[in-house]
Amino acid sequence: MKNTxxxxxxxxxxxxxxxxLPEKFFTKTNxxxxxxxxxxxxxxxxxETLGFDAKQLQSEDGVKILAGxxxxxxxxxxxxxxxxHQFGNFTMLGDxxxxxxxxxxxxxxxxxxxxxxxxxxxxxxRGGDGRAALxxxxxxxxxxxxxxxxxxxxxxxxxxxxxxxxxxxxxFLPGAVLTRIASSHLRFGTFQYAAQWGQPEELKSLADYAIxxxxxxxxxxxxxxxxxxxxxxxRHASLVSxxxxxxxxxxxxxxxNMTISGETIDYGPCAFLDTYETGRVFSSxxxxxxxxxxxxxxxxxxxxxxxxxxxxxxxxxxxxxxxxAAQDLLGDFGNQFQQNWSxxxxxxxxxxxxxxxxxxxxxxxLKLMHDHKADYTNTFRALTxxxxxxxxxxxxxxxxxxxxxWTLRREEQTESPEExxxxxxxxxxxxxxxNHRVEEAIEAxxxxxxxxxxxxxxxAVRNPYAYSDGQLAYTEAPPExxxxxxxxxxxx
Length: 492
Ligand code: AMP
Ligand code: MG
Description:
By secondary structure, the chain is of the alpha+beta class. It has helices at 44-49, 54-57, 60-66, 134-150, 188-197, 200-214, 224-246, 296-315, 319-330, 333-348, 358-371, 376-384, 399-412, 417-425, 435-448, 452-462, 480-485; strands at residues 26-28, 38-42, 78-80, 83-86, 89-92, 98-105, 111-117, 132-133, 156-168, 172-182, 248-249, 271-272. Strands 2, 6, 7, 8, 9 and 10 form a 6-stranded antiparallel beta sheet that branches. A two-stranded antiparallel sheet has the order 1-3. Strands 4-5 form a two-stranded antiparallel sheet.
């Protein structure tokens, strides 16, 4: 263990339950120290929620902790073991460039993993350097905080610290460590690892642990493992519907990047749609569009099936029975997704209740948006404020008819236009972290050490339903060519 003197009492309240799992699930690993740690961005609001003294944590000694240079008292740093299907191929993975400091029990009693991402090599690093570049860590910070603001379950970002250690990619880039906060880092891939390489009792320990941590209500049911599966399916049906509704493309939906908690995790080559193109792919490594926007629900279903397979021996001793029970649950995923998504779409259109014509109303609008490459967020924003003339669809064939049908549907509902407007305001973000804005902010940070753009962008995207004046500048869609050519690169 490293020297723990001079470490400020920032409010650590560790209880590291994961380290009480069988040793197979982790390797004790200290983060590698940074060279010249410098705080780039810090999340005061989140620090307070976690029970930290935000001021202390931002002091020179506090920043050393966020950089991995000092280890706080009560931390038991580990790298977690997991496997996963990456673009369909099963492989052993694990935290190759992240270390879990421990679990902070917040004043409200909730438990959060405190993870340093980019803090050096671990037993699972394979050929990698265990490091992360500043750009991708800022990207994760911006997008995860935006997702939280949008009301989408997600890991969060407490801080980014530059390390003073250059990382070698195609060129030398400034290195950084992101402090990631998640309700846990249990992944579908953690279960795949246990099922593939663990003893039956190790798999059972993991499942029991996941139940206690995330789904304690299923503990006393007749078949807790089947109920675990039911709950994870429900959370992911909800999660992916929220991604679709917000126009979020994760980019690397490998099973190691899918959480048992149902939070979005591992922001690599992710991006938000500008124009509505259903087959949109941003990730440079996703050559075949496996993780394209419109494939995300289907891939979630595929990933859930991989997770379900790991639970079969726990669900029933009789394998055929276990498969039948799991398939029953998996078979309902599509329906659950559809229900969540269509409820969300009705809210985006200010519609209460559910009428027969709603489905075609939604489909027709999306088709118009797709055909005319309309900006997704701005179309809904203009509709929210009853300014059809400002939607990118104004004047396009079919839009006036669609608008008339939608208006009629709204007039026929008993709720007032004000209530409908309110519903739309709370369902349609004024602002998303647009790719050109994210890139502009990161470029200024990396090339000119100007972090003001990143900080301003985070402030703007944090309350996406505020519709404040300050957000207006961020609502502009990018120039068409810039958008078409936009690619994201894996978060290394
Ligand atoms: P990701 O694409 O971030 O989900 O990472 C997939 C796997 O590659 C995980 O096991 C990571 O820990 C590992 N990995 C990614 N980048 C690095 C790196 N620079 N050094 C070591 N391992 C890495
Ligand atoms: Mg990952």
